[in-house]
């Protein structure tokens, strides 16, 4: 599938941010400057910046333009629709301890297509509401064949270009289909500690698995949200 010009510009900016050319708090080129550099309309350049803004890579700063965000932003598990470059409901988050290799639950292992006893790389984050209180916790699990060729997944630092684009660059594999399964249960002791809730609190558990063009899993995310904060809205033709 051909890459649109605004997507090409956005990808170039991501790469420059990831390389450290634009550090957190630094202003990226304006829409006018990007339009001149790429010989495109200003509307196309602004659309490219909008992609980064909606992905939480840059934020608007009054009187300055768009600056690279100093607070990492990510989506709750399953909040990206297949084929979309946008993040729905992006939130600030904190990373819980360093990424580690661990044995996933039977449910996650099944989604990743790995056998019992096989370790996968786990990254844990807690999304925050505007007042800083926890909204949800997400465990992202990467199968060995992905994690072993994408070493930055094992770093605690956020990946400026986004994990999806980083994995694509390292492996040549892109998400083509997402499968989301939502269930309800009580919080575990670990989840209750991360979210500041009681173990008697009902939580919604969203298991999101992204598959590549060959149907092979790239990542499985298990997002846990207290029932009082969970809301799912689907809009469809009838």
For the record, give the distance between the C-alpha atoms at the N and C termini, rounded to a whole number.
29 Å
Number of helices: 7
Radius of gyration: 18 Å
Secondary-structure-based class equals alpha+beta
Structure described in brief:
This protein has 238 residues and is α+β, with helices and mostly antiparallel strands. Helix content is 26%, strand content 28%.
What does this structure look like?
By secondary structure, this protein is an alpha+beta fold. 26% of the residues lie in helices and 28% in strands. The chain starts with a helix and ends in a 12-residue tail after the last strand.
How do the helices and strands line up, and which of them pair or pack?
Blueprint: H1 5-18, H2 31-38, H3 42-54, E1 58-61, E2 65-68, E3 73-74, E4 91-95, E5 100-102, H4 106-112, E6 120-128, E7 134-142, H5 144-147, H6 163-171, E8 177-186, H7 189-195, E9 202-211, E10 217-226
Antiparallel strand pairs: 1-2, 3-4, 4-6, 5-6, 6-7, 7-10, 8-9, 9-10
Helix pairs in contact: 1-3, 2-3
List keywords for this structure.
eight-stranded antiparallel beta sheet; alpha+beta; two-stranded antiparallel ribbon; 238 residues; globular; single chain; 10 strands; 7 helices
């Amino acid at each position: 599938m051909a890459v649109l010009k605004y997507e090409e510009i956005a990808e170039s900016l991501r790469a420059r941010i990831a390389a450290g050319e634009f550090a957190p708090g630094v202003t990226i080129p304006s829409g006018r400057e990007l339009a001149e550099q790429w010989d495109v309309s200003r509307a196309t350049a602004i659309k490219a910046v909008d992609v980064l803004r909606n992905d939480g890579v840059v934020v608007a700063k009054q009187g300055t333009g768009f600056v690279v965000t100093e607070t990492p932003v990510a989506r709750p598990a399953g909040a990206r629709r297949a084929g979309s470059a946008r993040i729905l409901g992006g939130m600030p988050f904190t990373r819980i301890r360093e990424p580690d290799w661990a044995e996933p639950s039977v449910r996650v292992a099944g989604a990743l297509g790995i056998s019992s006893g096989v370790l996968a790389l786990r990254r844990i984050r807690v999304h925050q509401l505007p007042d800083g209180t926890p909204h949800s916790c997400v465990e992202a699990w990467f199968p060995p064949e992905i994690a072993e060729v994408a070493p930055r997944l094992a770093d605690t630092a956020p990946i400026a270009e986004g994990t999806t684009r980083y994995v694509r660059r390292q492996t040549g594999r892109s998400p083509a289909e997402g499968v989301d399964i939502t269930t309800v249960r009580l919080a575990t002791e670990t989840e209750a500690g991360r979210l500041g809730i009681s173990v008697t609190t009902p939580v919604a558990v969203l298991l999101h698995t992204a598959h590549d063009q060959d149907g092979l899993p790239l990542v499985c995310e298990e997002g846990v949200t207290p029932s009082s904060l969970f809301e799912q809205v689907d809009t469809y033709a009838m």
